[in-house]
Amino acid sequence: MKVWNKLSVLSKYYIISFANLAVCFGIVSLIDSNFVDQIFFLTAFVWHFALQTPGLREKVMTNHHKLSFLAVIVRLNHYLQIFINIKRLPYASSFIRAISPVLFTLLLFLLGGHGNVLFTLIGSFCFEVVYVYVKKKTDFFGVSPLAHTSGLNTPPVIPNVEKTHE
């Protein structure tokens, strides 16, 4: 426990999330599923993992990363949280976070022609259940996933960062 207490919030987040991924992906691998289904599962799991990583939102919102796919994911989630404003349902923000990976894998399914979008929902569920459970039991992860996005009236700010070419 002494080592665990010395770890940073980000390190604890990585350890818990990757242990969760190993267990859940191991279970999904035991099921008779094809490769595309496993990719759909991993897409949803990593999507939620990226949205919840402490400090990542601030890093991807700089001018240097403003057009990256990860910045698009963060902005899309922010605007979905604003557009679908359901605060009275428990775990509403978890359900809203699951919309964008489902839409993305549905698009992949329509273009590719095979796969099971249900594995996307399973990936979202696996991440969110462990995240919410750990968040309720401890205070490892900063902002609560149970609370709705703060500052709903303002979009994520892209700070004016000047690059130096040294």
From TrEMBL:
Highest rank taxon of the organism: Bacteria
Keywords (A to Z) from UniProt: Membrane, Transmembrane, Transmembrane helix
Transmembrane segments: 12-32, 38-56, 89-111, 117-134
Protein name: Uncharacterized protein
Organism from which the protein derives: Bacteriovorax antarcticus
Lineage of origin: Bacteria, Pseudomonadati, Bdellovibrionota, Bacteriovoracia, Bacteriovoracales
